[in-house]
Amino acid sequence: MPEKEYPRIEYFQFRGLHPNISIGTASDRYAGWIGQIYSARRYAKDIIHRSKSVGGKVFTEEVLPVESVEEYFRHFGVLEMDFTFYQPLLDKDKRPTRNYHVLSKYSHYLNKEDRLILKVPQIVFARKLRSGGAYVENEQYLSAKVFTTQFYEPGLGLLGPWLEAFIFEQEYQRKSERPSAKVMAAELDGFFGTIPRDKRYHVELRTDSLLAPPVFDVLVKYGVGQVLSHWTWLPPLARQFALSGRRFSNAGNRLVVRLMTPRGMRYEDAYARAHPFTGLVNGMLDPRMVDETADLMWAAVKKGVQANIVINNRSGGNAPVIAQRVAEKFLAMGADS
Question: Which end of the chain has the smaller Cβ count within 10 Å, N or C?
Fold first, then answer.
């Protein structure tokens, strides 16, 4: 590893790691990152405490103000705004939602080189939605109108200069209910053939049987990227990439890799173990995940593809330290090649 890289990584400085590499996190504003990413004295009086129920247990989250994103981007090159998954930017009557106002606040603190990834609302891409304690069919599933008018157009208006990617995430499909890969491909064909063309689209399918040639062919047809996600029930990252023939399908020459949870560990268990996100949790971080992420980064570099690595606290306990491990492995691989 080049000696000059040590100080940057030691102090969580990941910008400039490589022109084709951007490391960031899934969400920001965690008070658990004070001392790593955020200054302790700056936010001492502005920390918001809120309760969050996960798996029947209640946790207290400590959240920093939006302005902390200025410090975030001194360390990272990209940020995934995952809260947009839960609500569009405009309601059905075209009135701005809370998410619209939050993103508007963020826009006041961004510099021209900062980049954001937005998760498309689940109402657009989820087959089922939770309602009244049960999962029901989503009547707006693959609605081009909802996506375009309630999310895409207002999103461009707010954040156009900073948008790096849109992520369409679909929930895991149980074996008794899941569609075939051919059906999924036909649905995606109809959807991406209707919405505005854009080189920033990426799809994350959390059902391994859907990672198949008919689906990949549609992604290539529309220049939509395959999100490689380290997540509970998905195969390892290298296997996901191999299933697509190691193709980078995004027309904008972009790759999104998301490190979400340890494989085989449910969301609620990963959250409970990682909370309050102040450091790595013993035995939680998978070395294979780190190795395969670094390998994917170099695969992208060799093809001239911009790789965006998004790290969640739940994948090991603390996203900044996981980013250190990934960056160190990436540099080590480069030194050995």
Answer: C
